[in-house]
Design a protein that fits this description.
Helix content is 40%, strand content 19%. By secondary structure, it is an alpha/beta fold. Helix 6 runs parallel beside helix 8.
Length: 307
């Protein structure tokens, strides 16, 4: 299949591109490189440096392709609060421009990078796809809800085949966000630099940490999906944040100081997925356990921090 990956020069997108090509697909990456990295893009892919806001150019770049995997979104939660209009324009408006470009180019299949944040504070666990969508506590979450809604509308109006993938907590190599707000890369970087680790809630909060290669593979297995499907992408295991830290310390062979930041408003106490729906539909399930995933991630940052 000929597949376009928006945001394919980023953390998750770069892994998706490699797996797609390894499976025999022809891949075009569309990325403006404002937050992606050219060197992360598989050399076998066709990289087009372009911005999704340029709808006519995007329409031309989509010609002849069969599907779009859409990851071209901003994801930093605190930044979304400070730059609400910028986030809305990039995430929501540019997604609608992409959908219009797809319609005009005759591309009617989208796999979308959504988030478990749309569920808000869980009422029961594990979270299933039929859990209600919550009122969001930040503009990043609101943009994900809005993007899901617009993409679903194009399914309804124009018969797009749509798969919404709601990620839980991805981690792994190639995560080079600036600023970095995700726990695991910050924990690893601080540990390798032997600096104090910032920790909220004394690490008692529970999360579903999904290794990036497992997450990326989910995008490739749902390419044959039809209609409108929503799938959670997680390990189905809840892990305390402090247990992640213990694993990191064990793997590097030493501990560093903890900087106790106390409680933080808006944090859910616990979230983890039920991913049975995608397993039943496509046979996908997470394969990489936390110690192995952390080992590979630490090795990536050990190399990256020495450059």
């Amino acid at each position: 299949m000929k597949v376009v990956v928006t945001g394919g020069a980023g953390f998750i997108g770069s892994h998706i591109v490699k797996i797609l090509i390894d499976k025999g697909h022809e891949v075009r990456v569309i990325d403006n490189l404002s937050r992606g990295f050219k060197n992360l893009v598989d050399s076998r892919a066709d990289l087009q440096i372009e911005d999704l806001k340029n709808q006519d150019n995007i329409t031309s770049l989509l010609q002849g392709y069969s599907a779009v995997i859409h990851l071209g979104n901003y994801i930093v939660v605190p930044e979304s609060v400070d730059k609400a209009v910028e986030y809305t324009e990039n995430n929501v408006v540019n997604t609608v421009k992409l959908l219009e470009a797809m319609k005009d180019a005759g591309v009617k299949k989208m796999i979308f990078s959504s988030s478990a944040t749309v569920y808000g504070e869980p009422k029961e666990l594990p979270l299933r796809e039929d859990a209600p969508i919550a009122i969001q506590t930040n503009q990043y979450g609101a943009s994900k809800v809005a993007m899901e809604s617009f993409i679903s509308t194009y399914h309804k109006l124009y018969d797009f085949d749509v798969v919404l993938l709601r990620y839980f907590n991805p981690y792994g190599p190639n995560e080079l966000h600036d600023p970095e707000t995700h726990a695991i890369p910050n924990f690893i970087i601080s540990t390798l630099k032997k600096e104090p680790i910032p920790l909220y809630w004394k690490g008692e909060q529970v999360r579903d940490f999904i290794y990036v290669e497992d997450l990326a593979d989910a995008h490739t297995v749902v390419l044959e999906g039809a209609g409108l499907e929503i799938f959670n992408i997680g390990t189905e295991k809840g892990t305390k944040v402090k247990d992640v830290l213990d694993n990191i310390f064990k793997l590097v062979g030493y501990e560093v100081e903890i900087n106790d930041l106390g409680e933080r408003a808006g944090d859910a106490k616990a979230t983890y997925a039920s991913s049975k729906k995608i397993e039943e539909a496509f046979g996908w399930r997470a394969k990489t356990d936390l110690p192995l995933g952390l080992k590979k991630t630490i090795e990536f940052f050990q190399t990256n921090l020495t450059k």
